[in-house]
Amino acid sequence: MKITFLGTSAATSYPLVFCRCDFCNQARRLGGKDFRKRSSIIINDDLLIDMGPDIMSASFMHNKSIADIKYCLQTHSHSDHFDASHLSTRVPEYMGVNIPQLQLYGSESTLKKMSEMVKNEGYISSLFDDKDKKRLNLEIFPVKPFQSFQVGKYQVTSFPANHDKPVDSLLYAITEDDFTVFYGTDTNTLSEETWESFQKKNLQFNIVILDHTYGPDTDSGDHLNANRFIEHIKRMKKENLLTENARILATHISHEGNPTHDELSKYAEEHGYETAYDGLVIG
Predict the structure, then answer these.
(1) Could you report the per-residue pLDDT of 141-190, keeping only the tens digit for each?
(2) Which domains does the chain have, with CATH numbers?
């Protein structure tokens, strides 16, 4: 399995557009790994997690073709994770050719919200309408929490995120052969039911990609901070949820308490994890 990080920032990007705090000023000066686009990853060349607003610019920069994507796992419908204008370009009026059918997965509430957003683009009436799905060369698959299902060659299990509960936000474990990645953004503290489900489904993670929106002792909103991130990793180790050489990576990084990449990476190393950056490839 190859994982490419298209973006690793929180909703506001990093640096924040209207901010002159020390972290944002340093990021503008340093560039490189300190420029973070909104969070999204590609697995191999065919599976996208979150069709966010920055996927096109990121795909150009990191030589990953969005046109080759066959499957999309959508965590939720927030605008930093779903940009309806990208999906709208699949209609015939945009003259796209030779694209595979896209299989789109998400909670039913998320898919309904996405449908409203795409409708506002003016090309279709509903993602649930058979004629509109044909126009988009698209199939949709509503997913429930704790559901295991096949996506092409991947075995996927969904888990409830502790985030924007009205749209039933989801987290995903994706397995290819004997290799499993857990993608856990956006979320606050995982529920006990989720921890129990990890055990019931006999999951062990080779890669954990986890929400790290806020830095140490910083908090605001339904996301993890560095302290709770570290607590989650300790519990995963204690409950034997990690393989021997598992890699733990922080993503969805805000300027709120998270310093620039080098400094945050040193902090992460001290606590047994890594800081992801845009363009990082694993595998």
Answers:
(1) 999 999 999 999 999 999 999 999 999 999 999 999 999 999 999 999 99
(2) 3-282 (3.60.15.10)
Full-model pTM: 0.97
Measured in Å, how far apart are the chain's first and last C-alpha atoms?
Answer: 6
Report residue 8 as tokens: 């690793």
Structure-token match 């052969």, residue found: 177
The rounded Cα 133 to chain-centroid distance in angstroms is 24
Number of helices followed by number of strands (H, E) in the chain: 8, 14
Q: What is residue 136's three-state secondary structure?
A: helix
Q: Which residues contact 40 (CB under 8 A, 6 or more apart)?
A: 5, 6, 7, 48, 49, 50, 51, 52, 54, 55, 58, 81
Closest CA to 27 of 217, 258, 266, 275: 258
| Tokens matching residue 72 | 């999309």
Q: Over the range 216-243, which residues count as b (16 or more CB within 10 Å of their CB) and which as e?
A: eeeeeebbbbbebbbebbeebeeeebbe
